[in-house]
Amino acid sequence: MGLLTDPGAGSGKFTQLLVASHNKLCVVLYIGGIIWFMILAHEHFNAGTYFSENALLPGLVKGEFDEDAVAKVYQSELFDEAARYPDGIPFSWLLAKFRQLNLDTYTHNFTLNSPLGLGMKYTGKNIYAILRAPRSSSTEALVLSVPYRPPSSVHPGTVPSVAIMLALAKFFRRQKYWSKDVIFLVTEHEQLGVQAWLEAYHKTTCGRSGVLEHGDMMGRGGAIQAAINLELHAEKIGYIDVKIEGLNGQLPNLDLVNLVHRLCSKEGVRHTFKNRENSNYRDIYKEWLHSFKILMAMVTTQATGVPNGNHGLFHRFGIEAVTLEGFEKKGRGSPTLYFQIGRVLEGLFRSLNNLLERFHQSYFFYLLPATDRFISIGMYMPPLGLLCSALIIKAFALWHKMQEDPNKAEPAEEEEAEEIKRAPSHSEKKGSSNHFSLVPVGMTVLLTHALGIALLSSPQMLGSQGLEYGFSTDTSIYVGYLVMTLSMLFIPLFACRNGGAKVESWTILNIVALLELATLLLCTSMQNFSLALLSAVLYILPSLWMVPTQSRVLGTLQKVVWLLLHPLCLLTLIVMIYTALSFPDEPILELLEKGLIATRQALVYAVVDSYVYANWVFPVATAILLPNWLLFWVVLHSRPHQEDLKTEK
Amino acid sequence: MKSQPMDNLVYLEYAVAGIIRYWLINSDYKQTIGDRVEISTSLNSWRKVTEGAYLYSEGINPYVGDNFHETPLGLIVFNKLISHIPQWIGIIFIVCDLVTAHVLYRTAQTFMSELFSRQMRKKEKYAKGTETLLLKQSDLVLPPVYVASAYLFNPYIIFSCVGQTTTVFANLCLAFTFLLMIKGQRIACCSVLALATLQSLYPATLLVPASIYLARAESSSSLEDKQSLRASSCILTVVTFISALLLLLYISSELTGGWEFLHATYGFILNVPDLRPNVGLFWYFFTEMFENFRLLFICVFQINATLLYLVPLTFRLHDEPMLLAASLTALMAVFKSYPSLGDVGFYLALLPMWKHLFNFMQQGFVVGCSFLITSAMGPIVWHLWIYSRSANANFYFGVTLAFATAQIFLVTDILLAYINREFSLYHGLHHKGSGKTTKLVLE
């Protein structure tokens, strides 16, 4: 309470020091934040995983699965069957097999109305079978799902996972201990199928209405507690990779992830996270580097907000889910066969079957630097807090400087929002006193955000417009966005000429922009920490520097740097770099072309994802980040602060 | 004092604010806003009102169940509104909000002129070199406009109005209390205050500043023995208030044919049986509380919300009853059992009246940042907790706790600023005490 009751706190030595050396402090905070985050990968700074949920009782009973021979038969049959349907799902065969096992078998149809463009329709079909729990009344359920991929698919096939699923269904059918329904789900069209199935199961629509018609469902089980998504690419498995990142960066409960790793170890199945096994270096640096690579792999995956497997769509419904992806055994050594996989899955489902309440004990917010170590939210938030506090301190320093100005700025109100809203009242006294006007600040903030919202709602219009002139959807959207954002770069021309704007107005705008960025990053970090971290690392340092200067060279440099950070530019750059890394041998020109195509598609995917799955990366980037970027852009084009001028001279 | 262009400006603001509210109340956002726990609590939500009114129109006593917590007076009025002019209800809410803004505007105008005349009276006592601190005539014109704007364009208030919470009417009563208090009209003030108390109980603490104000108004108009006059005036105010409240309670019991409503309204406010999360501090503690200790902590929390600050603040601020009233309103909004953002917005709108103190405030930036960040963070964490099921109650409570802390900082800061300014006025701007910079503490 000393801070509270000490009236000298504001002008005290601490504040003076803070304001005087805020630039250095901000940089120190920035670097400190990054270093802090980096060392979190080391095992001294993170924690070992453990089971919080006692009811799971992992691996307490001996596995009994012995239908591996049947799985092989299923596999060969399905390979034959799949060859007859190169583009579709052999649903009659699947239905027949499930029915032979005496399961409640249903098909589920869904339709996707293409949100951009010609109003094309795509249809798909999911097949699911429900093993009713003999020991209870179908109030809870578990899901084992497999994305079916026809031979023509670009992704590696999943026929072996269908085979093991059928074998498991056969085995599960005979067991008496089920107290939860087990739903076996084969989906079509990758994530679309799962999304449609989940929407139909819960009778809800997550994305924009009328885009994905989820259709009706004939049979349901209980409330789904957990889901395992299985993608085995071969009969002989080298290792199993556990994928966890879901839509909008949501993660499954850590207990489920632990459970998978624990059972894999128990059955002697090699298991990895991000395709990397745990390291065992003696060297402390190598050890750290290994963990850090895994950590960064997770951060980059999570930051996209796009699920890296079908499990990612379950999370939104409060269903914990992971994907087990099995890669083919290459080289020597004994592979993992259906037998072990079956035992692992059996153990998983028996553990899940033991659950008394839904997963809630363990962490939902974590980062993994290894399969058996984790960084919890309490450990990873402080670094981001440091990064964001740099922004806030900068804003405070600007504010303080403005307060101390000889032509005393008006002591402003408590809230930025109010400040903006109160702007009209200032228009009256404009010019009548030495008060500066908040009108241009309010107008700029309103204008940029209105433009952001306009951009957000334009893709459909752009798509249909482009089609009229014969352009493809991705081209028309990308070019449309390019034109619109380029024209927005001229906003400072109008904003800076606005009457009544004094230097202080732009300082206020700078403060507003800094605080908005800090708030945006903090709020994003709650939903998707990785995205917030990466954006913070990219944006914070430049944004601290975006104070108007008199020096022409420096000013140009600032503008160039800031232009590079334009969301659209950034997207292009990132995709280009990614393309260059994926195809290192291609000549530059082809790379550029490829990169450009990929960028256009990335933009369209972002839009479509926001329509179909309600992925919010695109809306946030266009409606908040871009306007915020524009605010800084306007600040850059304003006249520099008097005091700064003096010090520069 | 009453400058024409300012009035016109304020009327323009009414129009703009009215249009914003009208647009929102007719948009799809209305339902979303009205369903937010930060806006609607079980005490003020329109949903509960409609339920209660329906039960009442069906001939069922709405107070028997555990559903309806409005006052019987409110019940009758809302029932009439819902059954006769349902299409006008939105407009009524907007109009009430605009009237509140206007009442606050008038209050601020009166207060500013009072402040100025008080300064003129005391001018001789002030130390030398403090002329820069003094209010000038020109300083008095803008604060009322700010007060009105802060009420009209505060998002909290807008959302509260658009969500059709009955906080709109509570704010109207409170605003009238402030105006009538400063105008020195005892009977009117006491009856409005009784009305406010009837609805949400906590405003009863405002009786203290009100009686100080009324006593002062009386003693300044007469030349008799001031001490006894003040005492008798205070007693008279209290008696008026109590009789007005009793009368209202009696009317209420007559209207509903019994006293069950007391349990459903005051009992509901005091016992906090509904632990649905809100921006306050009660719900979290009382979900965790062992049943044995519930009564004890209820008492502690309720005393904290009402009486704890009343006595010290009254001793310290009896010269400035308006500030006392405002800080009590603010503390009420922080500590009451079912607070909503409409309450927060109300006292925020009062603050520009002390614009001359803003220069003395130290925490403005911190408080502003906290308000901004917590307001944005709250709904997000709520979404994570309720819809994504990944976060939990602690996250949301953390945010509301930070929000409450920011409000406390704000209140403390403005009180300190007041004390600091008074001290500077009497002792000069630059004062050093025995080589060390003097330290002022709030006591």
Strand order of the largest sheet of chain A: 6-2-3-5-4-7-10-8-9
Kindly report the CATH topology of the largest domain in chain A. Answer: Aminopeptidase
The description of the largest β-sheet of chain A is: 9 strands, mixed
The CATH homology group name of the largest domain in chain A: Zn peptidases
CATH architecture of the largest domain in chain A: 3-Layer(aba) Sandwich
Largest sheet of chain B: 2 strands, antiparallel
Give the CA-based shape of chain B.
globular
Which helices and strands, and how do they pair?
The complex is a heterodimer of chains A (649) and B (443).
Chain A: H1 2-5, H2 13-20, H3 22-39, E1 47-48, H4 68-84, H5 91-100, E2 104-113, E3 121-131, E4 140-147, H6 159-174, E5 181-187, H7 190-202, E6 212-213, E7 223-232, E8 237-243, H8 254-266, E9 271-272, H9 284-304, E10 320-328, H10 338-354, E11 366-370, E12 373-376, H11 377-403, H12 416-421, H13 423-428, H14 439-456, H15 459-468, H16 473-488, H17 491-497, H18 503-527, H19 529-545, H20 552-564, H21 567-582, H22 588-612, H23 617-636, H24 642-648
Parallel strand pairs in A: 4-5, 4-7, 7-10, 8-9
Antiparallel strand pairs in A: 1-12, 2-3, 2-6, 3-5, 8-10, 11-12
Helix pairs in contact in A: 3-11, 3-19, 4-6, 6-10, 8-10, 9-19, 11-18, 11-19, 14-18, 14-23, 15-16, 16-22, 17-23, 18-19, 18-23, 20-23, 21-22
Chain B: H1 4-25, H2 29-35, H3 46-57, H4 72-84, H5 89-122, H6 142-152, H7 155-162, H8 167-183, H9 186-200, H10 207-221, H11 226-256, H12 260-271, H13 282-288, H14 294-305, H15 310-317, H16 321-335, H17 341-350, H18 364-388, H19 393-427, E1 432-433, E2 436-437
Antiparallel strand pairs in B: 1-2
